[in-house]
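We modelled the chain as a single entity of 176 amino acids. Its sequence is:
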Amino acid sequence: MKRTISMNKLVNRETISYIFFGVLTTVVYFVTRFSVIKMTGNSMLGVVLAQIAAILFAYFTNKIFVFKDTKWGFIAVMKQLFGFIVGRLFVFGLDLSITYICVKKFPEFFIQLFFLDHINYNWFIFSNPLTKMFIGNERLLNEFIFTLFVQVLAIVINYIISKKAVFAKKEEASAE
């Protein structure tokens, strides 16, 4: 007998709000990362500071709006925050690894692989003031592509970790 998953189980308030706040977390991540890169020229520092900002933003939005967790005692919050951070360390490591390999160590390979060196960066989409700092040249576009790739992976992986471990509903009432 085949097991089917109903659309109601996949598309509900929790998953919709997780996707919404996941997108906002991605915006926090992108703005932080590319702002740091613009100020310092350092992609790795951009990853570190963007991950910290995104993790803190995601923890509180997930706790309050997505999983509607009501445990606010100091110990409960510290345990959850620790679990949340540990869960995100995998994505953090993935992000650092992909950035190092694809952006710092071998960017020319990926720029050529994706034909990013054949794009006219004078086109409005690449040269306007809103997008120029993100995709205004082949190196930035390469970084943007891999940043977006990691963020999509992060949304999926982090949802599973948050749902199954950090904000899992316990049968017994917690005294915290």
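As a brief sanity check on the tokenised model: The radius of gyration is 19 Å. The chain has one domain: 12-166.
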